[in-house]
Design brief:
binds 2-succinylbenzoate; Enolase-like, domain 1; TIM Barrel; seven-stranded parallel β-sheet; binds magnesium ion; about 375 residues; 12 helices; globular; about 20% strand; 15 strands
């Protein structure tokens, strides 16, 4: 198929609840939706960079620049039979994995839609529902935290992730564990600790956590290996893993026992599949992370999480947990009986963009069709 046209849509939507992590509070969520057109078919992908460089150096602005000035133009007029045809020129750009992923994932969706098959089939998925949990931000008080968790448990979520930071770790985790003795529970520090805090992280060993996610520096693999040797709780790496090479280093150094797979952070589905296969071969568990996506990115994540080595519940909650009105339909709803989302069965990612709603949320728009 020849790529005829690419569109970038920068949109911004209010979150249903502010989301506080150790790196800041998000009230609004921006992203770039990428649309790739060929032969009457349109594929969609989401660039999951945020407005601020708090989680990653990438922002909506840097991704707009990298896509506009380097990644998109070489795609116009390109003949693509597989996603690898579309991403060959990406290696001329170092990093900027989220920008790359949005465009690559749109090409995967385009090709799957053109073939009339759901994306999970192209990925070799093995399930039609994926297990999910919910990620809960840092709350102003302990009672507020317990309340918030009760609400989600009531909705049917069976895995709770709590954001932690220095001063908000052992006490809230102990309180949640006391209230929910059997729930799957984990903490995500978003890089807020250092090796000097090892005693705090050791204290978390008493609460039967599934894992502690990214406790140390956002770019680190080496210190995480030192930490994993000193705590019983499994370390999970999120921020530090941007490529199959990073995953290999983490495996060989025993820096973690679990990977959080975010397709944006690793530069697209091709790298996600490589890391999936590497962690399966090495016996590491993995799960699908989230970036407060719209229905587009959420759908990509749901399909990705059907792959066999996604052994733990993902941060892919129901649409209503994020946005009052999503820009794609159908929305994702939690299956209460087993804390899962159902994988869409239509072609490609299996959701459709509500153009009116999307345009209302839109801050910036650009078309690439070879004429500009
Ligand atoms: O660290 O996993 C994270 C959201 C934005 C940036 C980083 C993270 C998160 C989440 C929310 O934890 C996951 C989700 O529900 O989308
Ligand atoms: Mg994380």
């Amino acid at each position: 198929m020849k790529i005829e046209r690419v569109e970038l849509h920068h949109i911004s939507q209010q979150l249903v609840h502010p989301f506080r992590t150790s790196f800041g509070t998000q009230i609004e969520r921006s992203c770039i939706l990428v649309a790739v057109y060929s032969e009457g078919v349109t594929g969609w992908g989401e660039v999951v960079a945020s407005t601020d460089p708090g989680y990653s150096y990438e922002t909506v602005t840097t991704a707009w620049h990298i896509l506009s000035d380097y990644l998109v133009s070489p795609c116009i007029g390109l003949e693509v039979e597989s996603p690898s045809d579309a991403i060959r020129h990406f290696k001329k750009v170092r990093g900027h994995q989220m920008a790359k992923a949005g465009l690559e994932n749109a090409v995967w969706d385009l090709l799957a839609r053109a073939e009339g098959v759901p994306l999970w089939q192209k990925l070799g998925g093995v399930r039609d529902r994926v297990e999910v949990g919910v990620s809960i931000g840092i709350q102003p008080t302990l009672p507020a935290l317990l309340d918030r968790i009760d609400q989600f448990v009531e909705l049917g979520y069976r895995r709770i992730k709590m954001k932690i930071e220095p001063g908000w770790e052992v006490e809230p985790i102990a309180a949640v564990r006391a209230r929910h003795p059997h729930i799957k529970l984990m903490g995500d520090a978003n890089s807020a600790f250092t090796l000097a805090d090892v005693a705090i992280l050791q204290a978390l060993d008493d609460y039967d956590l599934l894992m502690v996610e990214q406790p140390l520096y956002y770019d680190d693999i080496f210190d995480h290996a030192k930490l994993q040797a000193q705590i019983k709780t499994a370390v999970c790496l999120d921020e530090s893993i941007h490529s199959p090479e990073h995953a290999q280093a983490a495996i060989e150094l025993k820096a973690c026992r679990i990977f959080n797979m975010k397709v944006g952070r690793v530069g697209g589905l091709t790298n996600a599949i490589k890391i999936h296969d590497m962690s399966a071969a090495a016996g590491l568990d993995m799960w699908c992370g989230g970036m407060l996506e719209t229905g587009v990115g959420r759908a990509t994540n749901v399909h990705l999480a059907t792959m066999p080595n996604f052994t733990l519940p993902g941060d892919i909650s129901a649409s209503a947990r994020y946005y009052a009105e999503d820009i794609a339909e159908p929305i994702f709803e939690l299956n209460r009986e087993d804390s899962t989302l159902t994988v869409p069965s239509g072609p490609g990612i299996g959701v459709n963009i509500l153009m009116n709603r999307m345009e209302k949320a839109r801050a910036r728009y650009r078309v690439f069709d070879g004429s500009n």
